């Protein structure tokens, strides 16, 4: 059984990641739209809907009664946006403001994020 501080730290990190990320979908919509691969239709709607889901998931983490469902939803959302991360790496020259090393590091960090979300979903007290 991991120490309680680890579960709390995972919860805080996941909450902040998705709360801030969800807000970014609305504040930086145009920039977020450039990340959407061209084969996905309606990039603006894709960005806005995924931003809503990020904010709903983050809010759901705050209540024990919805934490597990919210965490699994955020897990699925994170997997669903993986093509955007791969697309950014494949088209790195289209994103000159982002260092190439950050695009490379982003994919393994996504694995860490998925592990943290899984920890939140499996934590004792999450219903």
What radius of gyration results from the CA coordinates?
A: 15 Å
Low-confidence stretches: none
Query: How confident overall, as mean pLDDT?
Result: 94
**Class inferred from helices and paired strands:** mainly alpha
What gap, in angstroms, lies between the N and C termini?
A: 18 Å
Shape category = globular
Number of strands: 0
Largest sheet: none
Structure notes:
This protein has about 130 residues and is mainly alpha-helical. The chain is about 80% helix and about 0% strand.
SSE layout:
Elements: H1 4-27, H2 29-35, H3 43-61, H4 64-80, H5 82-90, H6 100-122
Keywords:
single chain; 127 residues; mainly alpha; 6 helices; 78% helix
Write a concise synopsis of the structure shown:
With 127 residues, the protein is mostly helical. It contains 6 helices and no strands.
């Amino acid at each position: 059984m991991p120490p309680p501080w680890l579960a709390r730290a995972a919860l805080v990190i996941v909450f902040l990641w998705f709360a801030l990320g969800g807000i970014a979908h609305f504040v930086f919509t145009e920039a977020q739209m450039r990340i959407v691969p061209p084969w996905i239709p309606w990039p603006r709607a894709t960005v806005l809907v995924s931003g809503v889901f990020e904010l709903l998931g983050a809010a759901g983490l705050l209540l024990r009664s919805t934490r597990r469902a919210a965490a699994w939803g955020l897990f699925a959302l994170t997997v669903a946006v993986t093509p955007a991360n791969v697309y950014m790496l494949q088209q790195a020259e289209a994103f000159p403001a982002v260092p190439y090393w950050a695009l490379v590091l982003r994919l393994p960090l996504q694995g860490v994020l998925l592990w943290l979300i899984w920890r939140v979903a499996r934590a004792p007290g999450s219903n």
